[in-house]
Amino acid sequence: MKIVDIRATTVTVPLEAPLRHSNGAHWGRFVRTVVEVEADNGLIGLGELGGGGQSAEDAIQGLKPYLVGHDPARTEALRWMLANPTASLYNNRTQLLAAIEFACLDLQGRALGVPVHELLGGKVRDRVPFASYLFFRHANEDGTGEIRTADQLVAHAKQLVDQHGFSVHKLKGGVFPPDYERDCFRALAEAFPGHRVRFDPNGAFSVEEAIRFARAIEDLDNDYLEDPTWGLNGMRRVREKTRIPLATNTVVVNFEQLAANVRDPAVDVILLDTTFWGGIRACVKAAGVCETFQLGIAVHSSGELGIQLATMLQLGAVVPNLSFAADAHYHHLRDDIIAGGKLPYVDGAIAVPAGPGLGVELDRDKLAEYAALYRELGNYPYDRDPARPGWYPLLPNTDWADPA
């Protein structure tokens, strides 16, 4: 095969309600860019990129001179063509590389009639378990969807357990004062005896606050405490003072950082993100390093639609040391751009797609619908909160939202 064309289409897909986090919010929708890589045999491989708009579409189109005529089976060459580490000092293309890699692996699988996991060594599991991934949420314009109190949080978690069968619960914090979020987290854990929990304030706490918070929840059935503070040295200091394993998706996101963490441990569990690491293959390589040094791994979520979810499932299918449930924003979406609609959860897990390539197809009508919605609504500032004009956080943060 040879690549003959690449296309990018930005879409925005509504969420059940605006999701709050330590830097701001997702303003009631996700903005994503769908990438299509066409080969000379007429096959089209699919990729997905976070964010969008003219800049993302132009960035993808800017790769066309690199890619036309390239054999999509040569995925290792892509890393050096598009994201050579010295060139990336001037033009970081890691997430662009990931989207292209997804599409090239999809093309290979489609051409051979096999799922991507067969190209990566074959699956060791048929289903990937997921955590519930709970957020504090703003209310919608009609007043529905708010999650601000412990009672609202627990009620929403119970709905998700009934609907999807989750038995692991992750709370995204860093929004309200730490003591308030601690009480909400404890209420969540106590509402589901026998279930496991994890907490993630996105690095917003000082080292000292993170230690205090960790000690206050050590009696719960924690998987891990994720990014309680910022930086490898800060995480190392927290790790020395708590019995809870620490996890990250922010300070170990490449092989240099992984090597530093192996030599001087600061993190126990690495959350592998197929976008942040530059593709599925990079995550498989990183999982092998973690297996060698007995670091835990999980699959991270960066706000996916069905195409990137498929990459997460293909990754989860092949790594033997996936010892924790994966994260996914997916259940917060109202819809998707893949044929057949959203992939279903069954007993807290999603089946690994069995079709060729990534195992998902584009719904062209949905793609057009949500591309039109993007053109109507445009982007939103991920690092701002619509309810707090002019606010932005410091690290560590001390200016919390008011729970009242």
TrEMBL record:
Catalytic activity: D-glucarate = 5-dehydro-4-deoxy-D-glucarate + H2O
InterPro entries: DgoD-like (IPR034593), Enolase-like_C_sf (IPR036849), Enolase-like_N (IPR029017), Enolase_C-like (IPR029065), Mandel_Rmase/mucon_lact_enz_CS (IPR018110), Mandelate_racemase_C (IPR013342), Mandelate_racemase_N_dom (IPR013341)
Pathway(s) served: Carbohydrate acid metabolism; D-glucarate degradation; 2,5-dioxopentanoate from D-glucarate: step 1/2
Top-level lineage group: Bacteria
GO molecular function, one term: glucarate dehydratase activity
SMART domains registered for this protein in UniProt: MR_MLE
E.C. number: 4.2.1.40
Gene Ontology biological-process entries: amino acid catabolic process
Segments forming domain Mandelate racemase/muconate lactonizing enzyme C-terminal: 150-245
PANTHER family (UniProt xref): D-GALACTONATE DEHYDRATASE-RELATED (PTHR48080), GLUCARATE DEHYDRATASE (PTHR48080:SF4)
Protein name (Swiss-Prot/TrEMBL): glucarate dehydratase
Biological source species: Kribbella antibiotica
